Amino acid sequence: MNSAERIFAALEGKQPDRVPLMEIIIDPKVVEALYPGCDYFDLVEQMDLDLVSFGITTDYREVEWVDEEKRIYRDKWGTLQRVTTEVIPISCEPALIQNESDLLDYQPPSGNDEYFLNQAREVVARFKGKQAICFVGEAVFAVSQYLRAGLQNLLVDYGTRPELVEKLAKVGVEYYVELYRRLIAEGVEVILLGDDYAWKQGPFMSPAHFERFILPGLRTVVEEIRRAGAYCIKHTDGNIREIIDMIVSTGVHGLGPLEPLPGMELDRIKARHKVCVVGNVDVDLLCRGTVEQVVAATKHLLATASVGGGHIMCSGNSIISAVNPENYQAMVETTKRFGVYD
Questions:
Q1: N or C: which end of the chain has fewer CB within 10 A?
Q2: Is 322 exposed, middle or buried (0-12, 13-18, 19+ CB in 10 A)?
Q3: Which pTM does this prediction carry?
Q4: What CATH number is given to the structural domain containing 334?
Q5: How far apart are CA 17 and CA 305, in angstroms?
């Protein structure tokens, strides 16, 4: 099997020749430490990872700087974002959409996004037929947070302005449905949806709010991805036990990366929900643990989550700048050595 076939087999719940490897993000600092002078795409080839990703994690288009000293800019949605030391920025006040009248006048970006479509053409030309090609995007929840300048404002709206929340959700759905159709037509094979729904204690919102405000849009996006002929993986941080049934009901092929939390063991999720699981070597362990501990954690996943197929190995989130490059390399090498199916 080549790398793409390996990923597709796992997403179909089948057993490939070995456990496939992927990451949503690998921080440039880790890339440089492992392969000086190379970028992420070079690393995918050098390490022979099975999936190559791009998307909102590689959105380096020119932006309108609002405060360069504080590293605050206006993004394609028209919302304010602040650059941090990591890849993903954070939303800033004031909110672009304060009320429903603001939303009536709002002109969202077009899903015919040439920046991402050009990226797709370049990645497809380089990796098609070798690595599986994955676009990392969103669906409903993240865009609503951008427009309302963060999670706190949006969650207050859930209780006080439900009609506004439902209208906000449509903005993200319409953009991403169009974008994903176009990307898949260009040769993208996997769509990974971000939008974190939870922290370690449980979901940010009640299951009833999830069902009302997020599930309909998520279902629409997943259905359109499948209709266009691609696979769909749903990522979220946190403990999602209370809402996992609803997420799986949308038809996603895979869940993850998922955090390694009590009660969310990948082998149990895979067995109960009949879905491919992705992950989940603990990021903190990759940052502060020893090589021996990382090898042991990887072998544990191979002996549990990987049995029978339907598992893709990666970290529990992404390879952030604090990850010890030797630890990440140990995870990859252990998977390749011990993750071969008989």
A1: C
A2: middle
A3: 0.96
A4: 3.20.20.210
A5: 15
